Amino acid sequence: MTTDVSAHTHAGAGAAAPPPEAVGPLIRGLAVLRELAVQEGRRPVSELARATRLARATVDRVLSTLARIGYVRVEGREAVLAPRLMELGNAYLAACRLTDLLGPFADRLADTLDESVSLAVPDGDGVRFVHQAPRRRAMSLAFRIGDLLPAERGAPGALFAGAWGKREWERWRERRERDPDDTGFPVVPHGNGDAAATFEERITAARRDGWSLDDQLIEPGLVAIAAPVRDAEGRRVCAVSVVSHTSRHDTGSLRESVLGPVRETVQQMEQALATPVTGTSVPPPVAADASWARASKHALGPEFVESLAHGLTVLTAFGHDHPGLSLTAIAGATGLTRATARRALITLDHLGYVTTRGRLFAPTPRVLGLGFSRLAELTLPQIAQPHLVSLVERVHESASMTVLTGNDIQYVARVPTVHIMSVNITVGTRFPAYATSMGRVLLAGLPRQERTARLAAIPLAALTRHTVTSPQHLAAVLDEVARDGYALVNEELEEGLRSLAVPVRDRHGQVVAAVNVSLHAARSTPEHSLAALLAPLGEAAAAIERDLHVANRYTSVSVT
Asked: Domain range spanning residue 392?
């Protein structure tokens, strides 16, 4: 059975029996999500049942519930993690404030040093990344937000382990005995006995020096230096780490060149952490979550596990303005009863996904282990693809996504449909933007000054007898597209080809891509095409945007 090693590194997880108040369906649902996460986000349902040791019927109900929430998709016989699942990791990152507050300092340090910079937090006997500012080189850091490393395999771990007690050391030794080659940590090369053998020595040095070195502990060629960042109460809440390659530095030259700037950055970070949190401590109540679960239960019956949905909803209650919440605040934020929220919190605490400080609850880094790093790799075309498939199944016409490349559109995703007369377009195909529906949507989404400059530089050739070639006419058309939110182009690129497109916008409202439906003009009038296709096309674009907005809150999503 494949198991996430981090499941064994938290109080109560893996060894202790669940408390009587624990919610069994929530435990089982999280086990399914963890198993999907460690298997690259996709796995046959039958294998999920075997790996989790759950009955197939139980796994089916869990997946039905997760699919209803939008956290997974079931594609044939396989279950696949979906981008919306990242909202759980987003809630942790927002609540801990480290990425929002300290990320800009890490980015500036990376620019100053021209080296990769990471922020890492302790997670049981491991270290988990919460921010990355990588340098793109042939040999560079390839870790993602949410990735988990053994504490002994890197510079930050020696800083955090200095605060371990007897219990933490026992867990570390148990894990080392059970998994000496680190096979449970898929992001690091397996087998580095030297890292464990020198761990206590490096902890002593880090305690003495106030910083820690990594001499190729993660993998050959990588060297790093890390320093702790403390909150206003003096606790080590994270570590800032500078990572380089032996082709650029050895540990001595790395220390000499970066330790000073790292210390200055740490001081700035600690000042930022000491600034009181602004905003309300209690989020406004929103009962929609609870009512939505009840409606889903009514619609799906036994295939929707309401207690699992409630437990996952609790994890989304946290945010930047309220890193720690009371039971009353969580119940109010989710629309759940206090009793329901309490049982969910007891379960999440047992599994290591939340922690308590006094009467306040807060999410832990382990939430990022629920597929965040896997989903952080998704590109916009990958996010869009399942929605384009659904759109084609609904309208029975081909659908595509493009981005603006120079004065052309470039296809980055496409789902064709089968007709006797069809359009032969593949991913990578480019067309002049001015004569296509998606191109007009993308041009209309540009700032007006940039749009005007582009139009002045584009030679408007007549591709068919219908092509708009007047700069003034095209400018007026783009104004209409910007106003109406769609573009309908009829036989301007090619005789007989009609296309309807709408924009896809990022979290800031900027148009980053366009999606369309294309069809042969002989099959209907332009008016009928608009009436039949605009609503489903707009709904598909909105679904893509929802996933994109979740995915790129704390990660950068490539548009190609």
From this structure: 380-551
